[in-house]
Amino acid sequence: MTLSRRHMLGLLAGAALLPVARARDASARARVVVVGGGFAGASCARHLMAFAPTLDVVLVDPSTRHVSCPMSNAVIAGLRPMRSLRIGHDGLRAAGVRVVVDEVVGLDADTRRARLRGGGSLPWDRLVFAAGMRVRDDAIEGWGDEARRRMPHAWQAGEQTLRLARQLRAMRDGGRVAICVPPAPFRCPPGPYERASLIAHWLARHKPRSKLIVFDANNRFSKQALFTEAWTERYGDRITWVPSTQGGTLQRVDARSMTLYLAGGAERVDVANVIPAQAAPTLAVTSGLAAAKGWCPVDAATFVSEHLPGVHVIGDACIAGAMPKSASAANSQAKQCAFAILASLRGEPTPDGVLHNTCYSLVAPDHGISISGIYRVSDGQWHDVPGAGGMSPEHAPAAFRAREAELAEGWYRSIVADAFGERVRG
Q1: Over the Cα atoms of the chain, what is R_g?
Q2: How confident is the model at residue 26 (pLDDT cuts 50, 70, 90)?
Q3: What is the number of domains present in the chain?
Q4: Of 228, 244, 277, at which residue does a domain stop?
Q5: CA angle, corner 330, sides to 365 and 96, nearest 5?
Q6: Residue 47: in which H helix or E strand, if any?
Q7: What is the crossing angle of helices 39-51 and 327-346, to 10°?
């Protein structure tokens, strides 16, 4: 497997400090409870054990395995098996992490205990909240159980991923597919546009008279120049993008008639992938971690909550300045958070961090595009480092795009190994 130079530098940024961290390990067997077993939580738990093997690290997640959102669009388009998204806990356990399959339903910052749905509670010296995001059921009029079934969002991978794939396969040739994009911020900023690309690829081969429309609550999007160039080149008029200024904002749905009520008028479609607005999980709200806009404010350098002492928030749930809500960003934040926890336990200042994000998107099986960013703390927030990162070039030759598609697979396998200590199946 070959990785791009910028991705290797990103993965090694945390590992470079490993000998120092191990040599100065916290002597006390402090307990760190990690809430959530996705890329953020798994990365933090696993790297805490690597940096300080004497810690008692407990990861709590309600599922026996994580289902990856990265690469789930390829499952919808029939390009990879669902099993390749399923990631177990064996690698975490092998690293010394204690995995508890349960759900944290309450946080008591005064007593530093996490209440479990299954009964009892876990005390903590430090707690890492890495529970991802929730889809806001109140964001769209008419949204409910029936809409979830008939207009699946598939933004939390698993059953909804398969449901959307089945609906596409059952659709008549000549049908209309719609993707409704919520207002930013949301998990995986390029995700809806990669999904549009791969669905268009599938339609071209299996439902050639069908079209796809992207109704967007935004007027610009990540990697827009690269996506639109590829859409024109590969898919012609098969994809239509309707931004907010042209009435693309979704306001209401009628699931029974498969009607989308947008700012620009009503549209009936055959398959609707409706992605509602998002926010931090309900537990973040009930525990006081979340702010008024639904996400969790943190101290940038340490990811310590501005609202609850002893609690760090990483990944999708936190407000991290210029950093996107992505698996790569979550993995990078997790390592910085691990260093911050160890420094705090030793009574030392948090080391300066340089964080990264790398994101590959597939436009087709042989056509990849990418973007990367490097971030430092300035004025109490994470900002892009000027001149660092950037997108892959426009008007690149086909061989370059094919190489980017190969690198996308390499990136996925490497981040699964780095975060979970697992190999991708299939």
Answers
A1: 21
A2: very low
A3: 2
A4: 277
A5: 105
A6: helix 39-51
A7: 40
